[in-house]
């Protein structure tokens, strides 16, 4: 398993936290949002999921991975 | 039908807009959120719905009607 921390802009409330964590989950990884810190910690299996796919899933929800 | 405009604090994103409009709808009225203006325009039938019930529904979602 690999861990990476992404900086994500645009998350403003609990609904955003849920939307981002669900997007990461739907992409096959596990995400934990730090709303105040504008960060998402992603844990994923490198054999099964690419970090690019996780980023794309978050961006599809309207947030910017920077 | 009556119309009233409420000032609502705490709405930050499109998810909040949806949550507030759904709360108003579930209370039996019709709501339109102005996110930038922090306002909710509520249209309701005074014979069927009280504005207090609409306010309570919005506050139940975690927003402040001021």
Number of helices of chain A: 2
What is the N-to-C order of secondary-structure elements of chain A (H for helix, E for strand)? EHEEHE
Largest interface comes to:
A-B, 8 and 8 residues
What is the name of the CATH architecture of chain A? 2-Layer Sandwich
Q: What is the percent of helical residues of chain A?
A: 25-40%
Give the low-pLDDT segments of chain A.
none
Structural class of chain A: alpha+beta
Computed Rg of chain A: 10 Å
- Strand percentage of chain A lies at 25-35%
Short description:
With 66 residues, chain A is an alpha+beta fold. Chain A contains 2 helices and 4 strands; from the N terminus they run βαββαβ. Chain A has one domain: Alpha-Beta Plaits (2-Layer Sandwich), CATH 3.30.70.
Task: Provide the fold topology.
Two copies of one chain form a homodimer.
Chain A: E1 2-9, H1 14-26, E2 30-34, E3 39-44, H2 51-60, E4 64-65
Antiparallel strand pairs in A: 1-3, 1-4, 2-3
Helix pairs in contact in A: 1-2
What attributes characterize this protein structure?
homodimer; 66 residues; alpha+beta; Alpha-Beta Plaits; four-stranded antiparallel β-sheet; 4 strands; 35% helix; globular
